[in-house]
Specification:
Helix content: 10-25%
Radius of gyration: 35 Å
Structural class: alpha+beta
Shape: elongated
Number of strands: 16
Strand content: 15-25%
């Protein structure tokens, strides 16, 4: 036998063995299992890898369990290619999956993150800024250090009207609305904007720019001090 005969025998042997091996494989193959044709792979958006000969996800789709889910920037031809596995997404004019305008892509490109409000759990700072605005931040939860929540950054506070974060104007600072005025020392007392300046509300008096004190309580204390001084003067 010359070498051509040996080669022919080897090829025949390979075809027979491979055919038997192919027949032994299950008809519906899962991700990571061996395959020969795309039709062998059962999960949606999967194919038979040309190099690996194993079932894998289409380009632009990501393996999650035994499913191929759409990823941001993954290829598509219609909205359902994206939204069926990636809520709040659509197929843009470039035929790529994209999050809708009020949503943000997660770092792994598998989720469209929704806008977050104060104290809602977050992953990215941008989630907080989508609703809270420029001063929104994703920070360690003061009540649970293992998680993060949306909070207003330093020198800002939540608006009384819509919950967005706005720059803080303290006692005696210049203002244009009550919403800007915020006391960092007596947060339970809401300052007011009066004559373009943040002031204590009726019934309270300023405490050297540090906060507001109850006016009635201050008056009583002052009266007691006067009585004590008067009594002290009488004694001597």
């Amino acid at each position: 036998m010359n070498y051509l005969n040996y080669l022919f025998v080897f090829l025949c042997f390979f075809v027979i063995v491979y055919g038997q091996f192919e027949d032994a494989l299950p008809a519906s193959r899962q991700l990571g299992e061996q395959c020969k044709l795309d039709s062998h792979c059962s999960p949606n958006w999967s194919l038979c890898g040309r190099r690996t000969l194993r079932c894998e996800c289409w380009d632009g789709f990501i393996k999650k369990g035994n499913e191929c889910i759409a990823a941001i920037q993954g290829l598509c031809t219609e909205d359902s290619d994206c939204s069926s596995t990636l809520p709040h997404s659509f197929c843009d004019q470039d035929e790529k999956c994209k999050c809708r305008d009020t949503y943000l892509a997660s770092p792994d490109r598998t989720t469209c993150l929704s806008p977050k409000r104060i104290n809602e759990t977050c992953i990215l700072e941008e989630e907080c800024k989508l609703y809270l605005g420029f001063y929104g931040q994703c920070m360690v939860n003061p009540a649970n250090y293992s998680s993060k929540v949306c909070l207003c950054s330093q020198n800002s506070h939540p608006s009384r009207f819509n919950g967005t974060c706005i720059a803080t104007v303290g006692l005696n600072g210049r203002c244009t609305s009550d919403d800007q005025c915020h006391s960092t020392t007596t947060e339970s007392i809401q300052l007011i904007c009066y004559d373009s300046q943040c002031k204590c509300p009726a019934g309270y008096v300023s405490d050297d720019d540090r906060g507001c004190r109850d006016g009635a309580e201050t008056l009583v204390k002052s009266f007691i001090i006067v009585l004590l001084m008067f009594g002290f003067t009488k004694i001597f």
